[in-house]
Amino acid sequence: MKRASAVLLLLLALSGCATRERPEGIVERWLSALNQGSAGEPLRYAGEDVSEAVLPRWRSADPGTFDVIEVGRGRPCLYRGPAECDAAVPFRVVLVDGGEVRSDALVGSERGVTDTIATRVFAMTPPGAQHELPSDGGPPIASAGAAGWLLALGTGLGLLVLAEGAMRLIRGRATD
Fold it and tell me: Which of 17, 21, 83, 89 could make a disulfide contact with 27, Cβ separation 3.0–4.6 Å?
């Protein structure tokens, strides 16, 4: 019975690790994949037309075409259209040849062929309407205050005590 309780407790703790992906992470992975050309599989994160708008002829581009990739903090999306928009995420890429693309990536959920829901970049805003990026003095993607650090420290100590208790319980049953 105690073993079943320990397994159940472990499964409950691990279920807290499953979370929805951040829109900023989707945009960053898309741009990193696009920087690798067709080998990076950017179509996992965005449509063909969106990828072409950032890097024309990306399928035949050499890896490492972007010199700088910068992604800002996403914000609620005001887009009204056929796709459901979850967030608008500002980004900037600087090409090795000096060209620059700045835009907001519109990130939303769409239902795939196998009826699974994927979060993808489905469109970009026209140039000129982007919000500030961290390099322009805009907000960083994430920052942890003192409360966050204290919560992390408390969680770590709680997990340490839980693990120690589980080891003592198992060790005690093994010696019986």
Answer: 89
Same domain, 104 and 127: yes
pTM summary value: 0.66
The percent of residues above 70 in pLDDT, for the chain, comes to: 73
Interval 114-159: pLDDT, tens: 555 678 888 888 776 667 777 777 666 666 678 888 898 999 999 9
Whether 27 and 65 map to the same domain: the answer is: yes
CA distance 159 to 8: 15
Structure tokens at 174: 């093994």
Count of the separate structural domains present in the chain: 2
Written as six digits, the tokens of 29 are 């992975």
Is the residue at 134 inside a domain?
yes
Q: Both 130 and 154 in a single domain?
A: no
**For 66-81, what is the mean pLDDT?**
84
Sorted by sequence, the CB contacts under 8 Å of residue 132 that are 6+ apart come out as: 72, 90, 138, 139
Three-state SS for 106-143 is EEEEEECCCCCEEEEEEEECCCCCCCCCHHHCCCCCCC
